[in-house]
Amino acid sequence: MELMRDLKTEVRQHIEAIITAEGFDLVEIKLARFKKKYRVQIFIDSDHGVNLDDCAYLSRLTGAALEVADLFTGGYVLEMSSPGIDRPLTSERDFRRRIGRKIRLELEEDGKVTSVQGKLTDVIDEGLVIDGSKGEMKVSLDRVVQGKVII
Fold first, then answer.
1. CATH classification of the domain holding 96
2. Fewest CB atoms within 10 Å of the CB: 1, 61, 85, 116?
């Protein structure tokens, strides 16, 4: 497992600057090994979303960088995609991208976790503004255990 974690770190070091320079965020890297080949899944996002052309373009750029780095013995398959609408929201930037959407939040306070849902209307001062069944409420981001868009 340590080898996969180290390999994931090396992949990140070789591709993150490329992805960022093109206006995207590197959300996650997943690695799996099947027999002698690796599967490298790279998940990206941006303020304007991610389409198929974006994935193809960034796949070519990052693939070239990974080829030069020669990290994978036995070869690899590279997959580039968006993380999907149902992925957990973890950062302020994630929430900013979802303003206007209905979300569910798991909140922690005094060791207890509660659930709140409503329309995300704004992100201000490291907090969220939610219009829920009890009206508008402000939630500090540091209380959010997990957030998800309600589909």
1. 2.30.30.520
2. 1
Residue 66 included in any domain: yes
Q: Is the same domain home to 65 and 100? A: no
Task: Note the pTM of the prediction, 2 decimals.
Answer: 0.74
Task: Round to whole Å and give the CA distance between 95 and 149.
Answer: 9
93-144 pLDDT per residue, tens? 889 989 999 999 999 988 899 999 999 999 998 899 999 988 999 999 999 9
Structural domain range at position 20: 2-81
Q: pLDDT, tens digit, for every residue of 44-94?
A: 999 888 999 999 999 999 999 999 999 998 889 999 999 887 888 888 888
Residue 126 φ/ψ region, left for φ over 0, alpha for ψ in the -120 to 50 degree band, beta for the rest: left
